[in-house]
Write a structure and sequence with these properties.
CATH class of the largest domain: Alpha Beta
Strand content: 5-15%
Structural class: alpha/beta
Distance between the termini: 30 Å
Bound molecules: adenosine monophosphate
Number of domains: 2
Order of helices and strands: HEHEHHHEHEHEEEHEH
Number of strands: 8
Helix content: 40-55%
Oligomer: single chain
Strand order of the largest sheet: 2-3-1-4-8
Shape: globular
């Protein structure tokens, strides 16, 4: 579903209809992905969505799409300025944005949240939203990697300007340099993947996002996954960990 779904409800807010109706699934996964910038979360999100049939819900993608609007609201302008500096957008604004899209949380196709929550306050707000929707998180996958490896991955990352597919100049190059294999769009380096923004983002991650792992570990929802190796190997590791968790919860 995810690769053909335009995710209209997520990009435009709950009122919009997605291009593909989610089919009722035997197993609809509801997952959160955690991990520092550059750990390969976006790539895993894509692979996991393809494998599990869930929708990839990225708050960063919503902000990047909003940046193309002709007349962004003052609140959105403030958010985009924070994003450009590599800072986090305020909790209040991000939570409101996700609230407006809460229909995506109870969608029977499941979801994979990428980039949200990023603070404990956002995680608490998400738990409340899920309660209201009558659904539960299956697990939180936390991808882990040494810092030096992360810096290398980030500086070589390229993103499709049209479909948001993620590449790496050496580890996952496109067939034709600068061109997306999937849609032919041009590949760009995101503004926040530049060295000065990377430093700010790593600091924001350490201060705000790492405590999230503790939040989810407390009640057993956290699964730590080594992000070392090829994307397909990490995917395999993630699926295996999820399956083991599902068996453990059932027994
Ligand atoms: P991402 O694509 O997830 O790396 O997000 C890109 C940028 O969007 C971040 O560096 C933040 O400025 C902003 N952003 C996205 N999601 C959030 C969030 N949950 N909380 C705060 N800021 C966010």
């Amino acid at each position: 579903m995810s690769e053909h779904n335009d995710r209209a409800a997520w990009f435009q807010g709950g009122e919009a209809h997605c291009s593909v109706k989610p089919e009722a699934r035997k197993r609809a996964y509801r997952l959160v992905l955690l991990g520092p910038p550059g750990v390969g979360k976006g790539t895993q999100a894509e692979l996991l969505c393809h494998k599990l049939g869930t929708c990839h819900l990225s708050t960063g993608d919503v902000f990047r799409a909003a940046a193309c609007q002709d007349h962004p609201s003052p609140a959105l302008q403030t958010a985009l300025a924070a994003m450009k500096r590599g800072d986090l957008v305020s909790d209040g604004l991000v939570v409101t944005m996700v609230e407006e899209r809460s229909v995506c949380l109870s969608c029977c196709g499941g979801f994979l949240l990428d980039g949200f929550p990023r603070t404990v306050m956002q995680a608490e707000a998400l738990d409340e939203l899920l309660d209201e929707q009558g659904v539960k998180l299956d697990a939180v996958l936390s991808y882990e990697l040494p810092l030096s490896e992360i810096v290398d991955r980030l500086s070589g990352r390229r993103t499709c300007s049209k479909c948001k597919a993620v590449y790496h100049v050496t580890a996952r190059p496109p067939q034709k340099e600068g061109v997306c294999d999937a849609c032919g769009g041009s590949l760009i380096q995101r503004e926040d993947d530049r060295p000065e923004s990377i430093r700010v983002r790593m600091k924001a991650y350490e201060e705000s996002t790492r405590p999230l792992a503790d939040y989810y570990e407390k009640d057993g929802r956290l699964i730590r996954v080594s992000a070392d190796g090829k994307p397909e190997e990490i995917l395999e590791r993630s699926i295996q960990a999820l399956e083991e968790r599902t068996v453990a919860v059932r027994s």
